[in-house]
Amino acid sequence: xxxxxGAMEKLCRQLTYHLSPHxxxxxxxxxxxxxQSCLKAVLMGKPQDNTVDLSGIPLTPKDVERVxxxxxxxxxxxxxxxxxxxxxxxxxLLQLLPALCGLPRLTTLALNGNRLTKAILRDxxxxxxxxxxxxxxxxxxxxxxxxxxxxxxxxxxxxxxxxPKQGNLxxxxxxxxxxxxxxxxxxxxxxxxxxxxxxxx
Length: 201
Hints:
Blueprint: H1 2-18, H2 23-28, H3 36-44, E1 51-53, H4 61-73, E2 80-82, H5 90-101, E3 108-110, H6 119-128, E4 139-141, H7 153-162, H8 189-197
Parallel strand pairs: 1-2, 2-3, 3-4
Helix pairs in contact: 4-5, 5-6, 6-7
């Protein structure tokens, strides 16, 4: 019973982390809108610390076109893209998606605090099924959007397969359904859980 309770607590912590904005972003105050001049400044230079930080800048369809062009031209120098609190909608993200999934070094994509709906999860999940797209991504933050309250199992599985070391990626997959079948090379996982359940009661 104690093991089950601990597993449930861990699952809840991981789920909360998935669906919440990071505390460091709160401290930096980036939920406040930034002026459009910030967008111009970012798009004029090379990615600082290999990061494209557009957080807090409301993006229009025309802005998204400019961002797409920038991502395509700077693809070899980008490992993090922060698009949190940019008022992104499903349509705007779909417009950006080809450029984003083509970034060879991208590991982290922050999309939290936008106007995305659960409908976009289908497109993201299908994209992630192709190992040639988002080849290096191990983290996509979709917290604090319109109605995204959970992440599909195939979405999490695809992310985990891109993670070089099992355990680096905090996901709700570890104690979710199908955990034995969807993690390659984890044959002993089911046996170890059976031992836990059969332990001293």
